Amino acid sequence: MEMSTLVEFTSDTVSGVTSRATDVLVLWDIDLTLVDLSGTGGAWYRQALQTVAGVTLDRMPSFPGRTELAITTELLTAHGIEPTPDLVDALWRELVAVATATSPLHEMGTALPGAAEVLADLAGRGGVVQSLVTGNLPEIAHHKLASFGLHTHLDFDIGGYGTVSAHRPDLVAKAVELAAGKHGTAPGEVVVIGDTPHDVAAALACGATAVGVATGRHDRAALAESGAHVVLSDLSDTAAAVAAILGRS
After folding, report:
1. Which of 132, 144, 111, 10 is nearest to 67 (CA)?
2. Which residue, 110, 155, 207, 249, is most buried by CB atoms nearer than 10 A?
3. Out of 3.40.50.1000, 3.40.50.150, 3.90.1010.10, 3.40.1370.10, which CATH number does the structure's domain 11-36+110-246 have?
């Protein structure tokens, strides 16, 4: 089951990054790559499912590296509910309402070490455009990052979000397509950064450079074995992280 985004992403939720030539398109995962908000997703789904379907959540699908469409479809099916487009849309809208009402979100988690510094360093380099490939809904992606001040250097207009497909490589392809449309030319290099083998596989499927960051549930060896071109322990060494991200461009 695939569908286009059903959640309206309005102009007041984007960063306002202007069109410019793109030599390198850097696509970030969010959860356990830039921020750690472990536990919030399950809590939001529990509340949203009860509100929309009147069902108490008793089985939660695995989150890491998966898209919102995949998670929502599996969750509804596991609770004996047909995941129709209208119901998926309603659940997503309730998820957005629940998540964005959670404030202050920064007290429920943390920005991962070095994330702000690497984002800022890359933003200061000519020809580099940064966006997202994330399983999150777009509004929730923005809310998570803005809560830690990590949103200002990202072009949310061209992100590949979890509403696009249950198949993560489709999110990378969508981001590349949107980047080419906005910035006038296909990026010369695409770099995908994430903490799971799903992130790595999505990058490889689209011919992108895969940078693994071992800040999630998978260690350096697992990320290397999945095919990552480069693996970092974390983002705390700005120079090393930037060199890894741009080293193949």
Report:
1. 132
2. 155
3. 3.40.50.1000
